[in-house]
Structure to design on (91 residues):
């Protein structure tokens, strides 16, 4: 009899054919969410008129560029990144 899953995120019983596909999709989706947040933040910071707005906008644009690179790395090469340090996770 097959084992039951503990949660929706439990992929221990998944076929070896589908496991890499699910992992890739999760990686790309996570990178897309992070890029969307960075894009929204950069857009909002660009419209800011308070003192020090230019420095905040530059920092937000730098983060957006980094997140865009991570998204492209996830899509094209299947790379994974740590959200806290923004460093690539080696396989």
């Amino acid at each position: 009899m097959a084992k039951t899953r503990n949660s929706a995120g439990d992929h221990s019983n998944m076929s070896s054919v589908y496991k890499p596909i699910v992992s890739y999709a999760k990686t790309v989706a996570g990178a897309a969410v992070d890029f969307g947040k960075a894009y929204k933040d950069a857009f909002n910071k660009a419209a800011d008129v308070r003192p020090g707005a230019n420095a905040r906008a530059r920092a937000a644009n730098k983060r957006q560029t980094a997140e865009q690179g991570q998204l492209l790395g996830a899509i094209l090469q299947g790379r994974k990144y740590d959200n806290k340090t923004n460093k690539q996770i080696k396989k």
